[in-house]
Every structure is written in structure tokens, then in C-alpha cells.
Amino acid sequence: MNFDFATLDLLRQSHPAWRLLRSDHAPLVASFLQRVFIMPNVRVMAQADLAESLEDELFAMRESLGSDVFPKSALEYLNDWASTEKGWLRKFYVQGSDEPYFDLSPPTEKAITWLATLTQRSFVGTESRLLTLFELLKQMSEGSESGPQTRVAELHKRRDEIDREIEQILSGDIPLLDNTALKDRFQQITQLARELLSDFREVEHNF
């Protein structure tokens, strides 16, 4: 995408993610939807459940900020967020049910994900991502190698590495991941799971 003035100005006016970030209600919308959809990796929610959760959120906000804050009902806000003017939620019906369901729209998820990058992380893991990068490069190299001798030599090398690892374990030397490495990998798994769910949402949205 070109980042010229005309393109960005059009996005500013029409893109749901940008509309969300410009909204006065952005803190409520982003924090609530992040808590009920993104954090627990929830795909869809029934209207009654989502409205009840938002009503509890609104009650707490009014208790702390005043009764005039967010005067509409939870259902009114949900329908507003799902309107074509906002586009922050997708409202739909599933087969065999008369109750509406809601899901995040892909632009909303992108906006909330971007907001999360603005805060400083208490733990920044890089080891597992570097290992993933090296593994992908290795797969590309091996998968594009058409020479039989080279492929066989690489397989022999991997077999020797496995044999050495077996001998190491049988001798009682069992390497274990430390807490930092485990936390790093858990963080990456969590991130990949959220990205995968986001991809599913975008695929469904595109069709």
C-alpha cells in the first residue's frame, strides 16, 4: 500500500480501525472487546452474553465516573458498534438460532493489537522467534535443493545429530528449558494462537 497523503486521508475517513482510534469511546470499546474476545481467544459471543458483560462494564464505569457517563444501554452500544458507520463488530445469525451473535471485525482486532504494542512489555522474548526464523530458512534451503546427494548428506547429518542426542540422554545428561526459555515459548504460542484466530476472522470477513 502506498503511504501517500491521499491514501492515508481516505483511510482516516473510511477505515473502521482508524475510526475506532479517533472515537471518544475508544478506551471503552478497545478495553472491553480486548477483554471478552481477544484475551480469552473467543471466536463469537451470543448477544445476551455479550450484552450482559457490557452492562456490567458500564455499571462499573458509571459507579467510578458518574451516572451520566455512557448513558445508553449495553445493547444500544453493541448495535451501534456493529453498524456500517462504525464497523467494529460483526452481527450475524447462526443457522437454527433466532438470537444474534457478535464477533470482532478484523479492523477492530488490528486496532486493538496495535494499541497493545504501545505499552512496554515486562518480558520480551526473542530466542524462540529466532529459532523459528532459522528453521524456516532451513526448510526453504532444503526444500529448494534438487540435488539428491546434497539432500542425502543433509539427512545423514540430521541422523548423526539425533544419534548424539540419544547418547547424551542415555548417559544421564538431559537438557531442559529454563524458566526464561519456557516463558519465551509460551509467549510465542499465545501470540501465534491469537494471530491464527485473527486470520480466520479476516478470511471469513473477505468471503
Query: Which CATH architecture of the largest domain?
Result: Orthogonal Bundle
Number of helices: 9
First-last Cα distance: 21 Å
> Structurally, how many domains make up the residues?
2
CATH fold-level name of the largest domain: Arc Repressor Mutant, subunit A
Strand coverage percent: 5-15%
From the alpha carbons, calculate the radius of gyration and give it in angstroms: 24 Å
SSE blueprint:
Blueprint: H1 5-14, H2 16-22, H3 26-38, E1 45-46, H4 47-65, H5 74-81, E2 89-93, E3 100-104, H6 106-116, H7 127-143, H8 148-170, H9 179-206
Antiparallel strand pairs: 1-3, 2-3
Written account of the structure:
This protein is mostly helical and 207 residues long. It has two domains: 5-119, Arc Repressor Mutant, subunit A, CATH 1.10.10; 127-190, no CATH class. The protein is 66% helix and 6% strand. The chain has a three-stranded antiparallel beta sheet. Strand 2 (89-93) and strand 3 form a beta hairpin. Helix 2 (16-22) crosses helix 6 and helix 3 (26-38) crosses helix 6 (106-116).
